[in-house]
Design a protein that fits this description.
The protein has 242 residues and is mainly α. Helix content is 74%, strand content 6%. It is built from seven helices and two strands; from the N terminus they run βααβααααα. Strands 1-2 form a two-stranded antiparallel ribbon. GO terms for molecular function: structural constituent of nuclear pore. InterPro entries: Nup54/Nup57/Nup44, Nup54_alpha-helical_dom.
Length: 242
């Protein structure tokens, strides 16, 4: 009986070994699995052919030999490989598109970086020139714009503080009332000296007048104190701004 077409027989002439990808170091286990399946289906053991396929394996860690029978299985294997190739090609095209996008972004970033570097260099040159001019002006004793402005503000504050009539306007409002109350007190003291007894001259009306005079003097003094405090605060604020 001719067993040339029987895949389970060792005499089959339409059998070849191909290599499939597998997990790391799983080649031996997959070979034993195929031989066991062949044994369960009543096939003969063609150990020498398996050993030859194992010996010719180009990558024993990631590939394992697989017995392929007849053109139908070869055609199926080819179809699966074409499908896998299409998927890999699609993934490769997507990666190429992403790579093109990354390259374009990288080129844009490089251009922006070059512009920023040029601007930075220009700013440094300008800054060095400003420093050189500033140092030259200082060596020649010429005041800078900002220093001159500060000097003008300081001079204005000095003139404002040293003005002879700085507080005269505030005092002029209080002095008449103080003078009036001082005259009343002087009159009272003069009358008291003419009397023999101070106690007999102190009347309720005079006491009220005296209290009113003291209250008015206190109000005038407090008003003058507020004016002085306000002017002092204004001067400090001007000094802080300067």
């Amino acid at each position: 009986m001719d067993h040339s077409y029987n895949a389970l027989k060792a005499a089959c002439k339409f059998r070849a070994f191909v290599y499939n990808r597998c997990d790391y170091n799983q080649s031996t286990a997959l070979v034993e699995k195929q031989r066991y399946i062949n044994f369960l289906n009543g096939g003969e053991d063609y150990t020498s052919e398996w050993y030859g396929a194992i010996f010719q394996n180009p990558n024993t860690a990631d590939l394992y030999p697989h017995a392929l029978h007849f053109s139908q299985e070869l055609h199926k294997r080819t179809d699966r490989q074409e499908t896998a190739i299409k998927e890999l090609t699609k993934q490769a095209e997507e990666l190429v598109k992403r790579l093109d996008t990354i390259v374009a972004m990288n080129e844009t970033n490089d251009a922006v970086a070059k512009e920023l570097q040029q601007e930075n260099m220009l700013m440094r040159h300008r800054w060095y020139r400003i420093l050189q001019k500033t140092e030259m002006l200082r060596r020649r004793g010429i005041p800078l714009g900002e220093e001159e402005l500060l000097a003008q503000r300081a001079q204005h504050l000095r003139e404002h503080l040293l003005a002879p009539c700085r507080f005269t306007s505030a005092l002029s409002d209080v002095e008449p009332r103080i003078a009036e109350r001082a005259a009343q007190v002087a009159q009272y003291l003069a009358r008291r000296e003419e009397r023999e007894s101070f106690a007999s001259e102190v009347t309720p009306a005079l006491t009220q007048e005296w209290e009113r005079t003291l209250c008015d003097n206190q109000v005038a003094i407090e008003r003058l104190s507020k004016i002085v405090v306000k002017d002092t605060a204004d001067v400090r604020a001007m000094l802080d701004r300067a």
